[in-house]
User: Fold these one by one.
Assistant:
Number 1:
Amino acid sequence: MSVPSKPLRHFLSLLDLSSEEAHALLQRAIALKQDWRAGRCYEPLRGRTLAMIFEKASTRTRVSFEVGMTQFGGHALFLSSRDTQLGRGESIEDSARVLSRMVDGVMIRTFAHETVERFAAHSQVPVINGLTDRFHPCQLLADMQTFLEHRGSIRGKTVAWVGDGNNMCHSYINASRLFDFQLRIATPETFEPDAEILEAAGDRCQLFRNPEAAVQGADLVVTDVWASMGQEGEQNQRAQVFAPYQVNEKLLAKADAQALFMHCLPAHRGEEVSAAVIDGPQSVVWDEAENRLHAQKALLEFLLV
Ligand code: CP
Ligand code: NVA
């Protein structure tokens, strides 16, 4: 049985970190990235295991956690709900009790946010949210690291979120609280983010209907798919509603001339973003994707070492 060397912490939402911890974590991610690139070997998780439960598809999240554990000298265990007893109805609570007696941390990607909360409540080891329908906090660590690397502190800057008020949007709202930036959110009617999450951020976040107004003078423009995992059946209807919200060159031209473009990926060129923008000079999506690895190594070190 694993004996935690420090008080048990989970990472289910960005708000599980204090602002100070979040800033320190980004600095650590940058340092770990430099160390890795310089060829310095650092294996603080030798002999330790991260279980990764996936109830939804993933490329970046799976690979970045698995590679991060390998680089740290540990092991990552891929568990698809299809092939485990979870898929045959074993309860979340029992799965949490059993797994956490054998592994040192658990990452979960699932549908209902309540699932990761229930798992964490019965786990003896740290639980990391690898995306739920409500939040995608690991992605925000990478996004914030990427902005910091390219433009310095995001404090006081203006970020425009264009598109669906989804899990990524919710995590941007929480990030605005931790990192103290203004967030303008442009969504079609009925696709606004959750009112409670929004209200808790106070006057840092503003809702817009018009994407051009939201993007005006922004330092960072962000979008995401119009139909998230689990919403595939709404794809056609959403494509019509969201068409005026495409981030293209005309829209990005309204932002600050130095504005960056981010997208958590996977992207649909010609839908939420034009090829000219995602493949253009203001896009930092490949750094953003790579930083999943470095930011999550910093997170693993923070939670497990
Ligand atoms: N951005 C992100 O989480 O990508 P995956 O779905 O490929 O993990
Ligand atoms: N909002 C998207 C993010 C994918 C990384 C989804 O939940 O499918």
Number 2:
Amino acid sequence: MPKAYLGLGSNISDTKENIDRAIDMLKGHSEIEVKKISSYYETEPVGYDEQDWFLNVVLEIDTTLEPYELLEFCGSIEERLKRRRIIRWGPRTIDADILLYEGFTSRDEKLTIPHPRMTERAFVMVPLYEIAPNIKINDRNISQILKNLDGEEIRKIAYEG
Ligand code: X6L
Ligand code: MG
Ligand code: MG
């Protein structure tokens, strides 16, 4: 079954609740198996400074959904969590991105895989490396990419239970 990596981010309260609801929606889909969940990270905002820090996680899934079907489902998660697009790169209840989809690349305006500029973002690369330390992105080892990354601040969180 094809493997894919998803990035989730939230910076509107309750961020932990929003991330966990998104994960539950993925787990509830009959054509998605959530295989790995990274630690949760508090991350400095990138792209637009005047907003709260984010909570970010990365997931590994197996899925029989085609890339565009998976994109639709990510969009439906954002709708169910009432994402509102007011400021570009601004605050959101949830952002659900396809980072990578095994054996598939795409560069069109609806769907770009690998996700644009993901290799420059610590909030993606650090949690991704935690659950997939041996993958390649655009023919580069993730460990090599991470070594050269001088990104935003990021702090791993320890949750109770
Ligand atoms: C120049 C131009 C430098 C654009 C950076 C980077 C824009 C990332 C947007 C950029 C630029 C983004 C999250 C976030 C966003 C998130 C954290 C984006 C889209 N999403 N910051 N900023 N976590 N920490 O999930 O990624 S907006
Ligand atoms: Mg994003
Ligand atoms: Mg997005």
